[in-house]
Each structure stands twice: as C-alpha cells, then as structure tokens.
C-alpha cells in the first residue's frame, strides 16, 4: 500500500538509499575486506558428537609450504583463551582441549598464505579420538548412566542447565479446577538455523607496534562485541575497534561471539599480520547459532462456552553443548512468558528446564524477540485445537477471548504491560480480505467430495524493542540505544547509530525520521553504523529493536537539534523562539507566514552567525532507554490444498494483517513482512536441523537444509491496521520479526484444519508431505 | 568448500578427448556442465588428478530424428532439451522431465550426458531413458559401442562405461503408434533431488497399450525398471483393472530406503499413486 506523498518523512515509501550499491554488487561484505599481508585461517572441526581427544598431531600440516601456524586448544589455553563466556552466563570452548561436545566443534586452526593451502593443511592434522556416547534426546539427557557432557564444569553432575518458572501456579491450578474442558497439545518447535546468505567471518588486524586491534566482523552488535572482547582478552577497550561492514543477512545468527573470531584475533596478535576467517556454508549450519528446539506441552483450561480460564506450559529446551542462548540475563527462557498471547487470560504458569545435549550451541533469536516465536506458536496451535474440541469456529473462539481495545494498556497475568492493540480490528480485516465465510463453504463442498482443503488462523502478539534497560540486558549491558546527529553548515547531516543494519534499510528509514523531525530531506541525511570508533555506543540490531529504540533516539536527538535551530531562526528573524512555528523544515513567524527561515539557514547560522552566548555547531547525541517494550500484533490467515495421494501441501493464499503502529517507510515494512512470511513458510514446511542417534547433523548444507524460494512460497497479500504505540516518540513498533513469529502457526493450523475432521490435532514442523500422507493413511484416507 | 588441487585440460574435439581418456581416464574426471562434479570437488568428496573439460566441445549439443530414433548429443544442456519441439513431438516423457530437472541455473549448465554418466540414483533422466528403452553410445579410442540404458546403471554413481570411455549420444526409439510419455516428480522444494520420480512411456494403439516402459527414480540403488508392471500392461487395454495391477506391481518394484524425505512405505506408495495417475491420464480417465 505504498502511497505517493510529497515529502520523504514518515509514511513515504521512498526507495531504499542503500540498494543501488547492493544491486550493482558494490557492497562491502566481510570477504571483500583485503588487507596488505593478510593470512587466511581454516578450522578443523570434530567429526564426532562426543569424544575424548587423545592426541593432536599437526606435524604434517605445519611443514606444508605456505602454512604459517597451526593453532590448537593447548596454545589457546596458554594464553587463557581456550574458553570464553556465553551470553547466558555459561562458558564455551574456543578450541577443544579435553573433549569434543558436538559434531562440528572447533578443534584446531591453520593459518596459511592462501585459503586453499589452509584447507589442505587442515586435512593433514591427525586427531586421535575416543568416541563417547552421544546425548541426543533432551528428554533422556538426565537418565541414569547418561554421560555428563559438561564435565569441565565444577559440580556439574548431570545434563540439566536451568529451571525457570513464570506466572502464578496457585492461581493457575485454581483456574483449572473450574474448567469445563482442558485441551492439551504437546509439540516440538524443531531446531532450525537462520542461514544468512553471507556466512560468518572476520578479518582480525592487530598492529604489532601499537597493539591496536581492528576486527572487521559480520556483527549485528559491534559495540557489545567490543566490550566482550575487552573483558575476555584483557585488551584496553579503547584500543579495540570493531568494524561491521555491509552484512548479508543476520537474523540473530550474527549476534554471538564465535570461536573463529577469537582464534583469528589471537593468531593476528601472535603473528603480527591480519588474519581472515570466512566460514563455509556447512560450517555456518553445523556450528553457529541455531534457533528454537523447544519441546513444549501446553494445557488450556476453558469453559464450555469457550471462555479461557488458564494456561499451563511445561517445556524442555535443547540448548546443545554450551548454554549460549542470546537473551536478557534475567530470563532463562527468553521472553517465553508472553505465551498468553492475544488473549485475556486470567492465569498462567510456565515451567521451563534446559538440557545439555551433544549438539551445536546457539538458541539465537532467529528473526524473533528472545523465544516469543515458540510462545506464539504454542498458544496459537493450542487455541486452534481448543476450537475443534469445543466445536467453535477458530475465529470465533479467538474473538471471544481477545484482549479488548478498551483494556489497553493491558497487564497480562505473567506481568507484561501490553502498550496498545486492536486485535478485533486486525482479525476483522483479515476475514474480510480472505473472504473467510466463502472459503468455509468451499471447504465443506470439497470435504464432501473427498478433497482436502484447510484454513489456518494465527493472531499473534509480539513483544519487541528491548529494554527498558532495568529489566533487559545483554551480559549486563543495558539494552538502550543511541543516535548522534550532526548538521553541517550546508544543511546536510550525518546520523550515526549504535544499531547495525543487516538488510533492514536503516540508511533510508532513519534518514526519513530526521526528515520528519527536522525537515532536512532524507536524501541529505547520511546514516552511518557499524564502526565502534565512529558511532555512539549501542546494543545492536536484533529482536526488532532498531525502530523502537534507535528510532526513538533518532527522533529525540532531532528534536534537540530542532530546539536549537529554533533559537537560531529567532536570532535570524530577530524575534523570540516562542513566536515561531515549525513545519517541514521551516520556522515561520506565527501569524506572518511570509517570514520564515529554513533549517538549512539555521544550520549555516550555527557555524557563521549565532548569538554570542550560544555554543557553535548543530550537533547532538541521545541515549534512549525505552520505558516499555512495544507490542506489535496481527492476524494471519492461510489457505492450503492437500494432495490426498502424496500428502503434498500447496499454500494457495496467505493474508497477513500487521499492526506495527506508525509505519515510517511502508514499502520497507512490507518488504520486511514478505521476508518474514517467507522464512515462516520455510520453518513451517522445509527448514530442519536434526541429528541421527550418533549426533551427526543431518542439515549441514543447502541440499538438506531447505530454504524456500519464490517457487514454493505463495503470493503474500499484506494489509495493515495502525494502532500507535503510546510511549514511542513516533508511535512506531518493531516489525521485522512479526511475520516469522506469527506465520508458522498459521501455516500449520491450515494443514491441521484440512484434516481436523479426521481427528488429527498435530503434525510436527516441518510439515513435510510424508507426514501429511501418514496422517491421511492413518485416518483411512486412500488414493 | 575449497577443492583440492587438480590439473586441467581442455581437448578441442572428441578425438583428442578419447586420447586423453586413454592416458589419464583412470585418474581423471570429465567436466561437462559441472553441476554434480563441482559440488563434489568443493566438498572434497571427489579428488581427481585431472579435469578433462568437454563443456565447450562443438557439435555435441543436438536433438534430431534419424530413422526410427531420436538422437541426442551427450553435450546437450537440459534447457536445450526442454525447449526442443522435436523432443516434445517424439519423446514426450523426456520433454516432460527436462523442465523438472533441478532449477534453471542447473538446466542452463548441466548436460544430459553428464547427468546420465554421473548415475545418481536420484537423477531424473536415467528413469526416463529406461522407460523409453533408450540406447547409449560410448566412444573410446578403441572404437564405438552401444549400451542399453537398462544395463547401463550398475550401482550408485557407477555405470557400464570403462574409464577410457565417453558417453557421446543417446538414442531413443520412436513409438510406432501414439506415443504417450510422462514424468512425475515429488520434490521437497524446487531444485531438490527427487523424493520419488516415475517415468512412463507407452506406445498406444487406440485404447490398447502396445508396449510399456516404466522407470523409477530415487527408490533404489540405481534408476529402476518396473519390469513386472510393464509386462502387465503389454498388449492390454488401459482399464481400471490393468491400471491398478500395473501401479501395484510398480510399487513392488521400488526398493526405497527411509530417510528425511520420507519412509520407505511412503515412497513406495507415491510410486503407486504416480503410476496410477499417469496411466489414467494415458487412458483418458479422470483421476
């Protein structure tokens, strides 16, 4: 719904400023960084999921011509760098010293003059392993006789990581005691991987004379990474510079620090030369941050009329060999306790336990705000089941229990304060655009003919834009963000941000905020990010937080500059600031519209002609700590047709109504929604990281880990409602993740809806044709 | 994903190619479109000492009728075949399969001969060649010999070609009556290997099936022939009874394994469903 408007401020669907360089192949990604004398690193990885390392022999590798160094865990340990901290308060091996704990774990690294030679040398390193029993099933991780994976941790006697509860157990038990009906669903949100098209990598450059360290890195959070590096290595923080150039997709995968970064930096320090490390596709899939892997059991207590009374959830998270979830430190299961979703739920209780297994660590928020995706999936699937059990239309059951518009701000039973919403409005629009009633008639006719068609619904509520910093942090760093704005004498501006775009369109969207607030055309505003020496401190881009936090900081700093510009305009117009009014880059004398000064006039005056008592320049910085999260929401509806012979699912339609408050660039927002709906499709139908009994990863390349293409995905029909956030300076909410959070349940619910009359209540993701076929045949449907 | 070192030679014609093969065929690999070989090199699963690049040989890409045969140059790209009106007229199963192979990039680069000689049991074309009762022409500096498609595939990635031999031409016999051909493929996404593929070639005389060929993809150690199903159809009217029997026998001929694409039981049932659908289509019946 891009509309033509005369300015480039809020609401203008202007084309993205960054696209010409990307389209022409002129972006600078990490592998484009080439430094004089640069060496190349390749990593040797474990073929076993769980094995003792008996010996490492690098003699043959070391003498291969072109090889400069072979780095092992022993060498890293000598520098106290064999282990590093994770984002969830655990430790992770940088290079294995004692044993390997997942297939693909980093064991040694070769530094050579050429990447091909480095790979040749990696193949020459001989490692003697003593294989141990692999722990693959988190449900059995603490059974008697199962080996302890983390025997490196003092006092660790089993594979249990954490126990965490939220909500009110007594109130929830009381609610269940009054229920007419309890509906339950046990489901696994399977392990998947963000799989950004650009894999992870870095170029570490430690100057041998000054010891200043510059690391070019594909990082979504360069400032936080610098602080972590300073803490881990003991290097002075001001001598570390992280430069995050153009990023080819992040989706949460590029938030953590990976062993490769640490080894490359240590190697550069030891060798006095720049060291480049670029992962290949398999390395990215088998060793870097995975997502999800939540085994969930939900129970919903209802009255016969469909009124929801309470919700119980028990879950086991499969965290892999190191607890490395990217999440605020207060919460062991991220923001999962948003699980009551869009419903006015009187009581809820959540119990979560984490399990170590012999799998890669991660638990990153893959296009997700810290486990809200798993929560949204569970409640939306559970509500759908309840609709079938109570024989109430799934739409009606939702409408009956939605938090009403007049209840906002709404305090949920697990402690969230939903800022604003109109759930019925979004649902009504989705029903209208889909033609829900007509499709239900078609479904009934097809059913009578033995054809299978389903209509899926999901009405999600997201929680994005962390902080408030009091409650949300990353490794202790409060989740604020920042913006620094300088307007130059000619009226052109540079905006520097603590966040970091990976494709979200920051260079355009944030320039538009400046235009909206200050009247400088967005094309005159250059947005800079990603260089810790040249941008203000910030926590980075993930969990849909850039617009809620850095967007607010941008608006606030622009307003600061506007106030000063108003004083300059008053000076130029020989009047008082309060006698002026501002409109789109011009300060008018009230009641005398022919007398005005432009923001460009004011900028020039700030450096050339200003009051004696005024500080020169037009520049400012704002650090913004949001008072609350933002709560975007929406209703997604999906229509599927199923081939009764093969079980193939064809998604015929996908209608998405999103409400993310005020949209700054509606076209950019729609692009985000298309991307997220596509990834949601992938998660629902094709993308799976799984393991065999020995712990071998079965999704280690794009032949096995299937990303959807334009061929598989449907035409997305996207619509909006606009319910501004009351606490955000622009009324905006985050949006990049809503479609990934909301859509998997809608897709799966559509498949279930097609076979619900056969008694089918669950098919696990990814919903592949063989699973649908099995459900059909089990219900006696033949072809 | 960085290949190990190798030598590279690019012969200018077939004569030079077979000379090089005679010398280095044992240690070398032929590179045509590279769509299977290059990934194997990058994964270091293939470690040839020399790559013999035949991707740019002249006169190696053609689809034409000669006598009672459709002749296809082994260097013909999938996209060329997919666009060929001659193939569409004379080899409908082949024409149906060509646009279903992998994705547009693979079809623009990959060659028919390369795909067949690679002998991936999940490759689509082998089943079509089996169903169509094709012959393959192999060339070496010892001379030329003709191999039957049904005897060509000896195991996964293993063929009847000798190390010094090069596949140069595919010969598809033309139908005497009405040629019916189809290729049905189940894949998880575009560009994926088949979960199951079924090629059906019928030589029809009115409603009666003169001869039948059925080839199966990805349900055995090689592309398979569904011999018993073919026998059940020969000389028979395509009625429901015949169709049921043939599709059941074709499913029996499948020997799939369970994996992430589905259980063996599932794959066998998809063979049955696909054969049934193809035969119903050939017989002009509704599904």
Architecture overview:
The complex is a heterodimer of chains A (783) and B (287). Chain A has 783 residues and is α+β, with helices and mostly antiparallel strands. Helices cover 28% and strands 25% of the residues of chain A. Chain A has a 7-stranded mixed β-sheet, with helices on both faces. Chain B is of the alpha+beta class. Chain B has 3 domains: 7-52, 2-Layer Sandwich (Uridine Diphospho-n-acetylenolpyruvylglucosamine Reductase, domain 2); 63-173, Uridine Diphospho-n-acetylenolpyruvylglucosamine Reductase, domain 3 (2-Layer Sandwich), CATH 3.30.465.10; 178-282, CO dehydrogenase flavoprotein, C-terminal domain (Enolase-like, domain 1), CATH 3.30.390.50. In chain B, the strands form 4 sheets. Chain B has a 5-stranded antiparallel β-sheet with strand order 4-5-10-6-7. In chain B, strands 11, 12, 13, 14 and 15 form a 5-stranded antiparallel β-sheet that branches.
Which CATH architecture of the largest domain in chain B? 2-Layer Sandwich
How would you write the strand order of the largest sheet of chain B?
4-5-10-6-7
CATH topology of the largest domain in chain A: Aldehyde Oxidoreductase, domain 4
SSE class of chain B: alpha+beta
Tell me what portion of residues of chain B adopts beta-strand conformation: 25-35%
Total number of strands of chain B: 15
**Mean pLDDT over all positions of chain A:** 96
Secondary-structure class of chain A: alpha+beta
State the strand order across the main sheet of chain A: 3-7-1-14-11-12-13
Task: Give the overall average pLDDT of chain B.
Answer: 96
Q: What multimeric state do the chains show?
A: heterodimer
Tell me, briefly, the overall form of chain B.
Answer: globular
User: Which percent range fits the helix content of chain A?
Assistant: 25-40%
Query: Are there runs of chain B of 5+ residues with pLDDT below 50, and where?
Result: none
CATH C-level class of the largest domain in chain B is Alpha Beta
Query: In total, how many beta strands of chain A?
Result: 32
- What is the straight-line distance between the termini of chain B? 46 Å
Strand portion of chain A, in percent? 25-35%
Taken in chain order, the helices and strands of chain B follow as: EHEHEEEHHHHHHEEHEEEEEEEHEHH
How many separate domains of chain B? 3
């Amino acid at each position: 719904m891009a509309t033509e408007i005369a300015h480039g401020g809020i609401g203008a669907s202007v084309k993205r400023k960054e696209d010409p360089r990307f389209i022409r192949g002129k972006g600078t990604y990490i592998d484009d960084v080439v430094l004089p004398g640069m060496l190349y690193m390749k990593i040797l990885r474990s073929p076993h999921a769980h094995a003792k390392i008996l010996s490492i022999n690098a003699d043959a590798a070391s003498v291969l011509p072109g090889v400069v160094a072979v780095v092992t865990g022993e060498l890293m340990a000598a520098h106290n760098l064999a282990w590093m901290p994770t984002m969830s308060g655990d430790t992770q091996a940088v290079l294995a010293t004692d044993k390997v704990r997942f297939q693909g774990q980093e064991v040694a690294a070769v530094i050579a003059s050429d990447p091909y030679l480095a790979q040749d040398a990696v193949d020459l390193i001989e490692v003697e392993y003593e294989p141990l029993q692999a722990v693959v099933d988190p449900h059995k991780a603490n059974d008697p006789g199962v080996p302890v994976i983390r025997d490196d941790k003092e006092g660790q006697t089993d594979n249990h990581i954490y126990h965490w509860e939220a909500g009110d157990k007594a109130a929830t038990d009381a609610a269940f005691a009054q229920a007419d009906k309890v509906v339950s669903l046990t489901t696994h949100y399977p392990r998947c991987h963000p799989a950004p098209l650009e894999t992870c990598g870095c170029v570490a450059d430690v100057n041998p004379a000054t010891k200043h360290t510059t690391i070019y890195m594909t990082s979504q959070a360069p400032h936080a990474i610098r602080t972590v590096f300073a803490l881990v290595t003991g290097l002075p923080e001001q001598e570390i510079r992280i430069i995050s150039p153009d990023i080819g997709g992040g989706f949460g995968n590029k938030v953590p620090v990976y062993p490769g970064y640490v080894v490359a930096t240590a190697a550069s320090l030891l060798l006095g030369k720049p060291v480049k490390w670029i992962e290949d596709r398999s390395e990215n899939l088998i060793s870097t941050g995975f997502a999800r892997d939540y085994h969930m059991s939900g129970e919903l207590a209802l009255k016969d009329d469909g009124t929801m009374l309470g919700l119980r959830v028990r879950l086991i998270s499969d965290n892999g060999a190191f607890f490395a979830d990217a999440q605020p430190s207060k919460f062991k299961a991220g923001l999962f306790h948003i699980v009551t979703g869009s419903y006015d739920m009187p009581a809820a209780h959540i119990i979560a336990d984490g399990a170590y297994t012999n799998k890669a660590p991660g638990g990153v928020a893959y296009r997700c705000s810290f486990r809200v995706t798993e929560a949204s999936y569970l409640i939306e699937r559970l509500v759908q089941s309840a609709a079938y059990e109570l024989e109430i239309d799934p739409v009606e059951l939702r409408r009956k229990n939605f938090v009403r518009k007049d209840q906002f701000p709404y305090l949920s039973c697990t402690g969230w304060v939903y800022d604003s919403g109109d759930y019925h409005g979004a649902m009504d629009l989705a029903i209208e655009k889909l033609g829900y009633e007509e499709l239900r008639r078609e479904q009934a006719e097809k059913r009578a003919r033995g054809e299978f068609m389903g209509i899926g619904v999901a009405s999600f509520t997201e929680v994005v834009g962390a902080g408030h910093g009091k409650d949300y942090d990353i490794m202790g760093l409060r989740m604020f963000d920042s913006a620094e704005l300088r307007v130059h004498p000619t009226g052109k501006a540079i905006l520097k941000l603590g966040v970091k775009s990976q494709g979200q369109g920051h260079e355009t969207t944030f320039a538009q905020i400046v235009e909206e607030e200050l009247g400088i055309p967005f094309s005159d505003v250059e947005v800079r990010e990603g260089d810790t020496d040249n941008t203000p401190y910030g926590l980075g881009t993930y969990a849909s937080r850039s617009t809620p936090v850095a967007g607010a900081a941008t608006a606030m700093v622009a307003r600061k500059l506007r106030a000063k510009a108003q004083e300059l305009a008053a000076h130029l117009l020989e009047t008082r600031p309060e006698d002026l009014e501002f409109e789109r880059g011009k300060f008018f004398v009230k009641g005398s519209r022919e007398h005005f000064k432009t923001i460009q006039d004011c900028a020039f005056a700030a450096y050339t002609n200003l009051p004696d008592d005024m500080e020169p320049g037009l520049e400012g910085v704002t650090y913004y700590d949001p008072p609350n999260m933002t709560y975007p929401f929406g209703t997604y509806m999906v229509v599927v047709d199923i081939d009764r012979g093969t079980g193939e699912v064809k998604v015929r339609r996908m209608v998405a109504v999103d409400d993310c408050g005020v949209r700054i660039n509606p076209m950019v927002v729609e692009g985000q929604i298309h991307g997220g709906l596509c990834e949601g499709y992938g998660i629902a139908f094709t993308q799976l990281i799984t393991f065999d009994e020995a712990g071998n990863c079965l999704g280690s390349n794009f032949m096995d880990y299937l990303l959807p293409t334009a061929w598989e995905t449907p035409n997305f029909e996207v619509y909006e409602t606009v319910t501004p956030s009351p606490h955000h300076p622009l009324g905006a909410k985050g949006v990049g993740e809503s479609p990934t959070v909301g859509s998997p349940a809608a897709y799966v619910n559509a498949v279930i809806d097609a076979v619900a009359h056969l008694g089918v209540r669950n098919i696990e993701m990814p919903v592949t044709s063989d699973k649908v076929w099995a459900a059909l045949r089990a219900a006696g449907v033949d072809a | 994903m960085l290949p190990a070192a190798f030598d590279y030679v690019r012969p200018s014609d077939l004569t030079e190619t077979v000379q090089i093969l005679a010398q280095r065929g044992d240690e070398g690999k032929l590179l045509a479109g590279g769509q299977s070989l290059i990934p194997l090199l990058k994964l270091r699963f293939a470690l040839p000492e020399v790559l013999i690049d035949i991707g740019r040989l002249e006169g190696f890409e053609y689809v034409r009728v000669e006598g009672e045969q459709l002749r296809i140059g082994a260097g013909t790209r999938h996209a060329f075949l997919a666009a060929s009106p001659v193939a569409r007229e004379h080899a409908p199963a082949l024409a149906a399969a060509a646009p279903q192979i992998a994705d547009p990039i693979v079809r623009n680069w990959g060659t028919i001969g390369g795909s067949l000689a690679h002998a991936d049991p999940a490759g689509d074309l082998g089943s079509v060649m089996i169903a169509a009762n094709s012959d393959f022409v192999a060339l070496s500096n010892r001379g030329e010999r003709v191999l039957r498609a049904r005897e060509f595939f000896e195991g996964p990635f293993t063929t009847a070609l000798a190390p010094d031999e090069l596949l140069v031409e595919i010969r598809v016999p033309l139908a005497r009556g009405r040629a019916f051909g189809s290729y049905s493929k189940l894949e998880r996404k575009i560009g994926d290997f088949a979960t199951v593929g079924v090629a059906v070639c019928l030589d029809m005389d009115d409603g009666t099936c003169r001869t039948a060929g059925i080839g199966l993809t990805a349900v055995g150690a090689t592309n398979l022939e569904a011999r018993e199903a073919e026998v059940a159809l020969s000389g028979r009217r395509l009625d429901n009874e015949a169709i049921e029997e043939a599709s059941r026998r074709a499913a029996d001929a499948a020997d799939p394994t369970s994996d992430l694409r589905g259980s063996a039981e599932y794959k066998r049932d998809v063979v049955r469903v696909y054969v049934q659908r193809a035969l119903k289509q050939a017989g002009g019946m509704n599904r």
